[in-house]
Amino acid sequence: MSALQKIEPQSGQVVALADTAALVSAIANAARDPNVDVEKMERLWAMHEKMQDRQAEQAFYESMKAAQSEMPTIGKDRHNTQTNSDYATLDAINQRITPIYTRHGFSLTFDTTDSPLADHVRVVCRVLHRDGHSKTYSYDTPMDATGIGGKVNKTPTHARGSAITYGRRYLTLMIFNLSTGYDDDGNASSGYDSSDWLTAISDASDMDQLNKLADELKAATIPAAALKGIRARWSARAKELRA
After folding, report:
1. Domain boundary assignment for the chain
2. What pLDDT, on the 0 to 100 scale, is given for residue 1?
3. CB-CB contact of 230 with 222 (8 Å)
């Protein structure tokens, strides 16, 4: 049994549950009384709903704390040739964290709405918890149809779609307080620093250079966990060069 599973209910939770049980009992008794004051019943019911909301909110934050404690560092799996930088895609993020947050009772729904900023789209994420509480986050993203040099490289539809994906990615990172880096398993678990390999792969300008690195990798002694991350970056760079 994990440490999280062993956690006992806090004293405040016990009191809240006891208060709720007493209130439900009072409401049930009042409902059986033909002479009950309707206004009093309404006040009791409103109090009951308020207590339920408070307990659901408390459960939301406790589950969020537990989920965040299990979140891994997300490996950067894609290279942006315009900015010459690596980043973690939405697919890579979801693959790593969806099993964790769903196990703790969370689900995410995304939508868009008008942004108060010109040429932006507001991406909205509603985080729902199994006990009924939810919280809404938003992120305003520019719908940029031009590259770094100012040349148009996207249609309006493509620009909007890219902005929505960007907003979803950053909202997910923010909500669960995620960190991104080069291969968490390879660097953190094995203690092996694969940054030189990853930089060399990102800097490869053609497949000849990339294949040369592959040959060097075969001859190198690298922990399996780190090698997995390096190979993933090599495959991603090869896909970019062949596109």
Report:
1. 3-70, 73-181, 187-243
2. 34
3. yes
Q: What is the spatial order of strands in the sheet that 106-114 belongs to?
A: 106-114, 120-129, 134-142
Number of residues in the chain: 243
Q: Please list, residue by residue across 130-145, b when 16 or more beta carbons sit within 10 angstroms of its beta carbon and e when fewer do.
A: eeebeeeeebebbbeb
The angle subtended at Cα 200 by Cα 199 and Cα 206, nearest 5°, is: 125
What is the tens place of the pLDDT at every residue in 211-241? Answer: 999 999 888 888 776 777 788 878 888 887 8
CA–CA distance, 163 with 180 (Å, rounded to integer): 20
Rounded to 5 degrees, φ, ψ at 179 are -110, 145
Compute the distance between CA of residue 116 and CA of residue 119 in angstroms, rounded to an integer: 9
The number of C-alpha atoms within 13 Å of 111 and in the hemisphere containing its C-beta is 7
Contacts of residue 236, Cβ cutoff 8 Å, sequence gap at least 6: 77, 78, 79
The low-confidence residues of the chain, meaning pLDDT below 50, are 1-18, 183-190
